[in-house]
Specification:
2 helices, 12% helix, rod-shaped, Ice-binding_C, signal
């Protein structure tokens, strides 16, 4: 009878390859840890000079008529404008918080945070108005003799200028004002050879109030692979002080350069002009008139007085204007490096292979020793 073959089996090649593969898998290189970084991109938006009038032009500004009375006895006025402009600039920083190095297995969801903050006192808006004011008194009566008196109490060109500096923020509202307030003007009435007494006067106040609002920043963030030229775009909208986080799928290893495209500032500008006027015209002729405009103290006198008190007369209210900021494009604001897929480290791989080989040899010796004991027993 033939004794059974108890020779220990020779380990197969596939088993050895499986051990080698496992060893290689244990030798993957560790990813370089990401480093937190920040970057600030300077922004300067400039609207240039724009009209405040809208489609109606400067003809929409002004008021005219009689403040009181009429041509026989009264005060007339006419206010108009010849020019009106607004301009603004906004100086700010667009900040980014990011990891400048990203591991391969994190490349599909790279997080970047963005925020907006103004440079101190680097923003401003200003307006300029060129205007004209005329106020006239009128006395055109027959007081025994024909009286014709129509002096210009005021006939003057004037300007209103607002210039406000501020530190930009989102959102934000900035106001400014200016006023034209000339000294009181009074004119005496000629006697016209009949002892006529009286006169006229005016106090005028023209005010401008303007409001400029920043509502938000919008545009695109572009990530561009430095070698391949592949690009990734994400829409960016900032309308508060809160940081906005965006996720970028950076599919390839290498350096990705980030820049900003089509940045624009949503904004609104409005302005309004109003007038206050105090004016009077009075006359008296006779033996004794006392206080002109009252009859209680008259003696053989004819007199009269008219007063005007106009408050808050609207001269112009502009439509809501959006100043033309941008769009702005920037160069590279910051860069992110995506690490290549990890590979085994050669030195570690050799050590692991050597260790695996030693394990295999030990196992082979044990199997052969067990086989020898079986032969002796038989």
């Amino acid at each position: 009878m033939t004794a059974p073959d108890l020779t220990p089996p020779t380990p197969s090649r596939p088993l050895r390859l499986r051990h080698l593969a496992a060893a290689a898998a244990l030798c993957l290189a560790a990813a370089t840890p990401a480093t937190a970084a920040t970057a600030q991109q300077s922004l300067l938006f400039n609207s240039g000079t724009q009209s405040i009038w809208g489609s109606g032009g400067s003809a929409g500004f002004g008021a005219s008529g009689y403040a009181v009375g009429n041509h026989s006895l009264g005060i007339s006025y006419s206010l108009s404008a010849s020019s009106g402009t607004v301009r603004s600039q906004v100086g700010a920083q667009l900040g980014a918080d990011f990891a400048d190095t990203v591991a391969w297995d994190q490349r599909n969801a790279v997080q970047v945070g963005f925020d907006f903050f103004g440079n101190p006192s680097a923003s401003q808006f200003s307006t300029d108005l060129g205007a004209h004011a005329r106020v006239s008194a009128h006395l055109n009566l027959n007081l025994g003799v024909p009286i014709g008196w129509n002096p210009a109490l005021m006939d003057v060109d004037y300007r209103l200028d607002i210039d406000r500096s501020f530190t930009a923020a989102l959102p934000q509202s900035v106001t400014g004002s200016d006023a034209f307030t000339p000294a009181s003007i009074g004119v005496g009435l000629p006697t016209f050879g009949i002892g006529l007494a009286g006169g006229a006067g005016v106090d005028l106040d023209v005010r401008q109030n303007a409001q400029f609002k920043l509502d938000g920043l919008s545009g695109l963030v572009q990530a561009r692979h430095r070698d391949s030229g592949d690009t990734v775009l994400q829409a960016l909208t900032l309308d508060s002080s809160a940081e906005q986080w965006l996720s970028f799928d950076l599919a390839s290893a290498g350096t990705w350069d980030f820049s900003y495209l089509d940045l624009s500032l949503a904004n609104r500008f409005t302005t309004q002009f109003a007038m206050d006027m105090l004016a009077y015209v009075e006359y008296g002729v006779g033996v004794y008139c006392g206080d002109l405009g009252t009859d209680d103290d008259n003696f053989a006198c004819t007199d009269d007085r008219l007063r005007a008190n106009l408050a808050g007369v609207n001269l112009f209210r502009s439509p809501e204007i959006q100043l033309a900021f941008g769009p702005l494009d920037t160069g590279t604001a910051f860069s992110v490096e995506v690490l290549a897929a990890p590979v085994p480290e050669p030195a570690s791989l050799l050590l692991m292979l050597a260790g695996s080989g030693a394990l295999l040899m030990r196992r082979r010796r044990l199997l052969m020793a067990d086989g020898g004991r079986v032969d002796q027993a038989s």
